[in-house]
Amino acid sequence: AQSVTQLGSHVSVSEGALVLLRCNYSSSVPPYLFWYVQYPNQGLQLLLKYTTGATLVKGINGFEAEFKKSETSFHLTKPSAHMSDAAEYFCAVRRTDSWGKLQFGAGTQVVVTP
Amino acid sequence: EAQVTQNPRYLITVTGKKLTVTCSQNMNHEYMSWYRQDPGLGLRQIYYSMNVEVTDKGDVPEGYKVSRKEKRNFPLILESPSPNQTSLYFCASSLLGTSGNNEQFFGPGTRLTVL
User: Fold this and answer.
1) Does position A106 have pLDDT exceeding 70, yes or no?
2) B50-53 CB contacts, 8 Å cutoff, 24+ apart
3) CA A32 from centre of chain
4) pLDDT at residue number A64
5) pLDDT surpasses 80 at B98
6) 8 Å CB contact between B104 and B30
7) Which residue in A4, A41, A94, B55 has the fewest CB atoms around it within 10 Å?
8) Which pLDDT value is given to residue A99?
9) Closest residue in chain B to residue A10, using alpha carbons only
10) Residue A103 pairs with which residues in a beta bridge?
11) Which of B47, B46, B63 is nearest to B55 (CA)?
12) Nearest C-alpha of chain A: how many angstroms from B44?
């Protein structure tokens, strides 16, 4: 069975500070990994995705994520938070042997304070 | 404009009254999927479709039906809605390609309340 765990349902960061959102997956085989962002009253949009062979993945809006197979993690970071980063962030995994199913973490709400 | 559209965007209904939420995409995507979003639970997959006439269950299919008669449309049917199906529903689509890491494009969501 596969699951996705996001540590922390709410994160508060100061403008200009580091943003770190944690995601761990449980799977015997490294799955396809994604981070999505949801702005208030909107659908989800892709921030970045893991591509085999590249452990550090760069996405939109200055976000990046590091894949660590040994830790089964795919944590999302941004060096300097901006007010516009306030949103909910979801980690998602898709099994490599069953592309149809996509599982999301519970989400992390990011609040950015001036 | 490439997009996924859902209708209606908001719906209040009563227990047991059949309803359909439509989803349409104009990107010629093979893959389409339905999710429900509930606080503290993230998004959970209801059903997905790999192509026309090919559908399969996600993690929470009970109480829902889908059909995929055309490539662009993937309606979600609640034959006898119950209050525990009150939720925010999202439709998504993507290309299938040769790997499973294609981006999914999401619709704007349908907020359903079942009284």
Assistant:
1) yes
2) B50/A99, B50/A100, B50/B96, B51/B96
3) 12
4) 96
5) no
6) no
7) A41
8) 78
9) B40
10) A93
11) B47
12) 7
Q: What is the pLDDT of residues A66-98, one digit of tens each?
A: 999 899 999 999 999 999 999 999 999 987 777
A-chain residues within 8 Å CB-CB of B107?
Answer: 43
Q: Judge whether B35 and B46 are in contact, CB under 8 Å.
A: yes
Q: Which of B41, B58, B90 faces A101 most closely, judged by CB atoms?
A: B58
CA nearest A42 in B: which residue? B108
Tell me the shortest Cα–Cα distance from A8 to chain B, in angstroms. 11
Mean pLDDT over the full length of chain B: 94
| Residues with Cβ within 8 Å of residue B62, at least 6 apart in sequence | none
**Which residues have a Cβ under 8 Å from the Cβ of A11 and sit 6 or more positions away?**
A19, A20, A21, A108, A109, A110, A111
To the nearest whole Å, the CA of B31 is away from the closest chain A CA by: 8
Closest CA to A45 of A55, A31, A34: A34
Three-class SS state of B19: strand
Three-state DSSP at B45 gives: strand
Comparing CA positions, the residue from A28, A15, A66, A106 lying closest to residue B41 is A106
User: pLDDT band at B8, cuts 50/70/90?
Assistant: very high
Query: CB–CB of A44/A37 below 8 Å?
Result: yes
Residues B43-76: tens digit of each pLDDT: 999 999 999 999 999 999 999 999 999 999 999 9
Contact B23, B69 (CB under 8 A): no
Q: Say if residue A1's pLDDT is above 80.
A: no
